[in-house]
Amino acid sequence: CSEVFSMNMDTFINNLKEVVSPEMIIYAGIGLLALIVISMMIRHLRIRKIREELDKFENKYAEFKGIPLSFKLNKATALSKVNKSIAENITDYQNRFDDVQEQLKEFSAILAELDDFVYSKKVRKANDKIVELEPISIACEKNIHEVDALFEEVLEQENMQRSNINILKNNFREYKKIFNSLFDICGFFMFDI
Q1: What is the rounded CA–CA span in Å between residue 57 and residue 6?
Q2: What SS3 state is found at 188?
Q3: CA distances from residue 123 to 20, 27, 54, 116, 130 in whole angstroms, order as listed
Q4: Any idea what the Cα angle at residue 64 is, between residues 108 and 153, rounded to 5°?
Q5: What is the mean pLDDT of each run of 10 residues along the chain (193 residues)?
Q6: Cα–Cα distance for residue pair 193/182, rounded to 1 Å
């Protein structure tokens, strides 16, 4: 059996030598090398594109975290103690804030997985995570801006009250100066209040 196999192999190799010339082997080698180089370049370009997407998502995440929603929620909660209209809605505000925080956690987890896949150069899995992250990013951005606008509206009332208080304080200071100057002119002495 091994004699038949070695005989068949020898005839195969001899037939191959007759059909394939050394020049063909060189051309095939160059073609194979070119194919390997091209596939490596394509892989490198795909990884670079994925890294750019990763950077874009990391910047979005940093932008989302940069919006001071917890600070605004705390101010709204403090205002709710003195303002009944805000107190009625504070649980809704808290729930919406919690929803945004959950979305940010999910965004962060998927972003970390994407970063791991990029680091380990798993292109296909990284692309899958990008596809998964895109709608989450859009929804998260929409919800964050809605909640931020909601808090801004609530805090606008506080800003108006604060500006009215400052106007009253400034008026009081002006009246105090006028009265002090009148008392000084008349020779009366007034203590600073």
Answers
A1: 61
A2: coil
A3: 38, 31, 12, 11, 10
A4: 140
A5: 59 74 84 94 91 92 91 84 78 90 93 90 89 92 91 79 81 82 63 50
A6: 15
Q: Whose CA is closest to 140, among 108, 169, 107, 116?
A: 107
User: Does the predicted TM-score (pTM) go above 0.85?
Assistant: no
CA 21 to chain CA centroid, nearest Å: 59
Going by C-alpha positions, the residue among 114, 117, 118 that lies closest to residue 132 is 114
Let me know if 168 is exposed, middle or buried by CB neighbors in 10 A (0-12, 13-18, 19+).
exposed
Kindly state the tokens that stand for 114. 């994407």
Can you read off the two tokens belonging to residue 116?
A: 């791991």
Decide if 149 contacts 93 (C-beta within 8 A).
no
DSSP 169-186: HHHHHHHHHHHHHHHHHH
DSSP string, 23-86: HHHHHHHHHHHHHHHHHHHHHHHHHHHHHHHHHHHHHHHHHHHHS-HHHHHHHHHHHHTT-HHH
66 exposure class (CB count in 10 Å sphere: 0-12, 13-18, 19+):
exposed
Side-chain-facing half-sphere of 93: CA atoms under 13 Å: 26
Tally of helices (H runs) and strands (E runs) in the chain? 5, 0
